[in-house]
């Protein structure tokens, strides 16, 4: 049985490396007599590469070769990844992808195509890099109704926040360090604005709750507004700020889903997830909380997740793996501003005492937080469980108070 | 398709509860038209139980009923669990167990039987309660060579150690609290002496490294020797004491495997695993470190793992799941005393200065640790990487020094 790889970038070349490095055990585990690489599709030329003879620039070489049963898509982007994947599935080939953009935007369509043509479309590597998460959710947790899922889904932003928390580094310096270390792109917006995390929570929520969640329906807020002042106050609260993707089952067959920096209490597994690591918490009605932790990116971790899917495809050539979800309605996601939680608030005030009196009379008891060298005109506090809608109105009603930041306090 | 449950204790009744509670989604996920409970085998009488009509005291009712395709074994103990399971597998029925004693002692034999009779023997719930670990190891990590595995595998001892660390509670008091909370049995020896953790690391090591690891070949040390003095010194080292089960691939196709209290640096996922939670770290050659965290015991978490296996059996009635390992040779496990690591040592000395001089001359530089109110005759320090063999000899050679405790310092 033959495999082709489309896109010889970081992940694609990692897949080729893992396929070769662990070749014998992979063949054994795939229950095949052989499992070998036949083509690498890439426009670029890789002179001297050990697999130089396998390169092609023609997609049709792969599409029309009946001996190729499994194709790895690691090109990234929506086009032509979507067209290629569709054509391969229609030809009855299995496709394995690490492309979160593709799955988040087109997962429903591609899974339906795979079903129609009795083949597999697998995407373990699209979330959490090498962390096994798609398969545990779809199989191991099969006996649970999943109520909620939350995760640190982006290593770049987690590295930046870790530097801010542990080294008191300003956001811009932490971003520069991430770029120097190769953890952030030259254009870091997809990471720091939360779009990457958004795609991943869309995939997880689609899988957990059974209907496709589209990125454009998910409120997404990045970490560019987080300051060292917030980090210090939250430290006083015994907690840390993490960029979380969250989704939760709500009433009337709807769900909530959003990406935003939020507060996680120290001592939890998410709080102790530092640097470029990712962690995903799944809350099931029978299992309670389960957390999956590991490297969320990187050549070999991600490649190993891709190759695990390749093995699974090889084992399921005749009978496809049951995996899929339904189309969702327009109003499937409820407005994030209606999801109640305790909130952290930092505000500038004209008169501290007057502001505190007004806060007490409009919001009841709040927990004030401390940081060293705070100006006399700054207040930070945590208010009890309420919706962002109600909170905003209450804060707006207080004269001389200007909100500098608000963050949701989670129970993860 | 029908299911039977043998043993209506905590886990068995939990399985019945989950099968009923999540019935519709379970049937859907198992790709069957129906999946219903037909028998509960138990000698006791459960008057008024909603499933009262399904109880039987005759194993043969289950064995001889062709409509029962999947049997859940939650009786515990080796006998008659082993005889029943063997008979069921020989009859071509799938068996799902949560019985770690059975899998650790008889896993190889039962997996061979399952293979011979083209049926399934699954045991996700035998390790880590509800945490998905057996399936991720055998499938998701298929593309990795696993180099090492280490885990907090016993919730009772982790609760006791957490109370000692966080509340400064003495071992006996913490054990009593665990018993009062239902986290420890009246006879707690299987937990506190490490035997439960031993069975679990045997199962994990068998799966990761491909040959059966027998409990009697695994050095096992419990937590009864851990004192608050050790806890305090280790705190000064920026670490905590955890009862770990560890296994590692060694040279010449051998492995190491042992259970002992060991030191884990703060900030790691294992260090932040508190109370009755479990966590299992898997170190793969492509994936790096991955950690699985969750409730390691409890009625519903464990039951949900059992039911996930039941669903998997239902999906694999015709073609069995590939799962198994080989028989091992007698000298498969290397002596734990030859596994090098840094070590923590606490000792009573006659003369502190003389002892420190002798330590410097025999062991080179060590890191001395501090605790409040330590007697003048006590020393605690961490020595560099060496085997326990070498360390013991060096310590024995120092006059007037009596070792009170030694603990391995891990890099997990």
Provide an overview of this structure.
Two copies of one chain form a homodimer. The first copy, chain A, has 412 residues and is an alpha/beta fold. Chain A is 36% helix and 25% strand. Chain A is built from 14 helices and 16 strands. In chain A, strands 7, 8, 9, 10, 11, 12, 13, 14, 15 and 16 form a ten-stranded mixed beta sheet that branches. A six-stranded parallel beta sheet of chain A has the order 3-2-1-4-5-6, with helices on both faces. The longest helix of chain A is centred in the N-terminal third of the chain and has 17 residues, at 100-116. Chain A is elongated and about 75 Å long. The relative contact order of chain A is 0.14. The interface between A and B is large, with 55 and 55 residues.
Please outline what is shown here.
The first copy, chain A, has 412 residues and is α/β, with parallel strands linked by helices. The first copy, chain A, is built from 14 helices and 16 strands. In chain A, helix 4 runs parallel beside helix 5, helix 5 (100-116) packs parallel to helix 10 and helix 7 crosses helix 8.
